[in-house]
Amino acid sequence: MAPAAAFPGRIGAVARYNGRQLATSAQWLARSREHTNYTYDLAPLNLSHLAWFVADVASTSVGQARAMIDEIGSNAELVGHLRAAAAGSPRRGLTDLDVRLGRRVGWYALVRLLKPDQVVETGTDKGLGTCVLAAAILANGTGRVTTVDINPDSGSLITAPYSDVVDRRLGDSVATIGELGDIDFFLHDSDHSPSHEAAELVAVAPHLSAKAVVLSDNAHATDELAQWAEAQGWRFAFFCERPTGHWYPGGGIGIATRPR
């Protein structure tokens, strides 16, 4: 009798949850222009957890990590640039003017704290993440970002002053990685098939500097970076996003670092 007696309460809980999801989805369909690479803000508690994640990776205090997250969150110049670039972009019909950085605030904080000389990003798309990485490089006062994409129409958001520290490369990411020098900060964000992600990791391994970190924007969907880290004898960690006000459940930041 117990399952039958509990069923109305159970179905009510499911209906309330699904109702909230449907309402959020309907609002997004009405208000957003995005069709891929969805953008959103992170829930406050999730941002707090991100600060601890960044602090552990960068071997610094959570206060320092939190300060870097707050820094990008209050960067009015970057927000204004992204809005203006999106409004003037040929892809403006598929780009929201509201600037929501999600896990990219973690990328920013890591670049600010680790101070890499050479950041390499595969998969440029519109260039939102590239501009965030470039903003961190500009704040550091040193370093460059190389972003690689096969699409000649990618990178519509990358204009001055952020383009001043960005080298755009057009072509296959696996082949292009082999043409670069020492890499301090590598981010896989291109073709998210497991085979391509694995191929990029194989290609980048000989080019990683002594202080290098390797990130995957696909670690919520595959274990390629975790497997690679284990084979290399490196450490692996994962931060799981919790978006607020969005139907998408979120991705995350997978990161491999050398053993301490």
Report on this model:
- There is one protein chain.
- With 260 residues, the protein is of the alpha/beta class.
- It has two domains: 1-31; 37-257, Vaccinia Virus protein VP39 (Rossmann fold), CATH 3.40.50.150.
- It is 45% helix and 18% strand.
- It contains nine helices and nine strands.
- It has helices spanning 2-31, 44-58, 62-73, 76-87, 104-114, 128-140, 173-177, 194-204, 224-232; strands at residues 41-42, 118-122, 144-149, 166-170, 183-188, 208-216, 235-240, 243-244, 252-257.
- A seven-stranded mixed β-sheet has the order 4-3-2-5-6-9-7, sandwiched between helices. It has a two-stranded antiparallel sheet with strand order 1-8.
- Helix 2 (44-58) packs across helix 3 (62-73) and helix 5 (104-114) runs parallel beside helix 6.
Topology, please?
Blueprint: H1 2-31, E1 41-42, H2 44-58, H3 62-73, H4 76-87, H5 104-114, E2 118-122, H6 128-140, E3 144-149, E4 166-170, H7 173-177, E5 183-188, H8 194-204, E6 208-216, H9 224-232, E7 235-240, E8 243-244, E9 252-257
Parallel strand pairs: 2-3, 2-5, 3-4, 5-6
Antiparallel strand pairs: 1-8, 6-9, 7-9
Helix pairs in contact: 2-3, 2-5, 3-5, 5-6
What is the CATH C level class of the largest domain, in words? Alpha Beta
In angstroms, what separates the terminal alpha carbons? 56 Å
* Bulk shape: globular
How many H/I helical runs? 9
Name the structural class: alpha/beta
User: Looking at CATH, which topology of the largest domain would you report?
Assistant: Rossmann fold
Strand order of the largest sheet: 4-3-2-5-6-9-7
